Amino acid sequence: MTAQAAETGDLVAVIGLEVHVQLETATKIFCGCSTEQAAEPNTHTCPVCLGLPGALPVLNEGAVEAAVKVGKAIDAEIPEETTFHRKNYYYPDLPKNFQITQYDAPICQDGTLEFAVAGDRRQVTIRRAHLEEDPGSIRHVREGTEDIETRTCSIERADYTLVDYNRAGTPLMEIVTEPDFRDPSEVRAFLEKLEEVLEYLGIFDPTRDGSLRIDANLSMVPAEEVADDGSIDDAVLEDANRTEVKNISSHKGAEKALAFEKSRQKKLIESGRAVEQETRHFNETHGNTVSMRSKEEEKDYRYFREADLPALQVSDWKETIPIPELPDARRERFREEYGLSEEAASKLTSTKQVADFFEDVAGEYDPDLAATWVADNLLGELNYRDMEITAIADRLDEVMRLVELVATDEITAKNARETVLRSMLDDGADPDTIVDQEGLGKTDEDEVAAAVTEAIEENPDAVEDYYDGEGGAINFLVGQVMQKTGGSADPGDVNQLLRAELDD
Ligand SMILES: Nc1ncnc2c1ncn2[C@@H]1O[C@H](COP(=O)(O)OP(=O)(O)OP(=O)(O)O)[C@@H](O)[C@H]1O
Ligand SMILES: [Mg+2]
Ligand SMILES: [Mg+2]
Question: Which family does it belong to (predicted)?
């Protein structure tokens, strides 16, 4: 918080998140069904995930391992023993009428995550992170003859509803933050960082539909309640009426939903009305939130111990399960080891795949060249096309070859980026083919030297001007040499060669 004197009547936004992350395991959390997403509806089901009477859950060790990795990455406390509870509620996507989740002994407690927003480093406390099962997925549909995708609609307009239990039982980790955020933009930056860390851990697939789902809680608190260190008394937080916005599935969506909610609540309070404590739904298309229901209270869920799952001893898992180098550590190492700027190091560690590729290139060629090629050229061109590096994961050896062509001076850097790389991304061709087709191979040194001599002999006036100190003359001569070599010589080299010969 900036230490601005609070005026009476000023309001501050207070935001806390519940982030649901699908953990990448081959099978579900309590049964052996596949978690694969692109399957026919209701084909990856069994008596356990359908909640048939008498079926018993068996905990997936892989899900626990993934949770422990998250715990280590956010520096959380992992207790001696963790237990599972039943959270009881009725909804068609939940065939058992309860969700197996964790309650008073979650697998992770009291963690932190550091992130940067507008150049400032910020830290958020993670209150808890627990394991639970994902419910099935529901789709409301209108009658019609067209493809079902185009008939999916809101519940109000639907003629019927379909339930797919393939998702039921997919392992989830719910990560709950303290209400430490003060602005929607911080939330976006935090989510970006969280996703980066999860991806580095190799337990999360950001490209998977619905792999990250956010519930965002927001309340408005009088500015005079904020202490100098930015903290707010627990009692004040407890008393403030908050809304919980559900159905957010992207970083941008979270920022948008919260910005809407912030101004909605502010207007209510300023006009003397009260904010209802309620659950609201984010409408991505309209960018607004609408009331769904009054907020459930904990007692509504009738939590009790899941008797079919024994308590799990996890204290020593923390020691035995390794985690890879995380983005912050890798960024610092890149700065030291390769002498990169903060900005370049940040870009190059933004995803594990980018960082790995940079290290591959830097292992073969000069690190500065590798940084320019990966951070500026490759990421720049991908970004321009709204593409991620994952889209060309199987073509990175071609990009490596392109860097080789530049490093070994076979083509100019300008041609490599502006012609070869762009055409690789746009037309899918490989670098050698493009170089051949476009005739981009650099002219060899003898040919350039001959063109330099020729240009000097053929243009005595320009040579005269050069000796008279006229600045434009050298550029004219460079142009002549470039023409003779069909544009494939390096203009900087030509300039030097000309000067050397003229000054001799
Ligand atoms: N005054 C407040 N303003 C905004 N957010 C708050 C405030 N007080 C608490 N929060 C946030 O609300 C969230 C509470 O999540 P938690 O899962 O513990 O409870 P819940 O939302 O009541 O339960 P459920 O899991 O059933 O949705 C946390 O992210 C916390 O930071
Ligand atoms: Mg909640
Ligand atoms: Mg919750």
Answer: Belongs to the GatB/GatE family. GatB subfamily.
Same domain, 296 and 413: no
Write out the DSSP string of 89-145.
Answer: ---TT-TTSEEEE--SS-SEEEEEEEEEETTEEEEEEEEEEEEEE---EEEEE---S
Beta carbon of 262 within 6 Å of any ligand 1 atom: no
In the chain, the number of structural domains is 3
From its phi and psi, is residue 40 left (phi > 0), alpha (psi between -120 and 50) or beta?
A: beta
Q: Is 178 in the pocket of ligand 1 (CB under 6 A)?
A: yes
pLDDT tens-place string over residues 134-189: 999 999 999 999 998 899 998 889 999 999 999 999 999 999 999 999 999 999 99
Quote the ligand 3 centre to 176 CA distance (angstroms). 7
ipTM of the complex: 0.95
374 and 352 both lie in a single domain: yes
Quick one: 395 and 271 in the same domain? no
Residue 244 in contact with ligand 1 by CB distance below 6 A? yes
Q: Which domain holds residue 375?
A: 327-438
Give residue-wise pLDDT tens across range 98-140.
999 999 999 999 999 999 998 899 999 999 999 999 999 999 9
Where a domain ends, among 320, 347, 370? 320
Ligand 1 binding pocket includes 176 (Cβ within 6 Å): yes
Cα 271 to ligand 3 centre (Å): 31
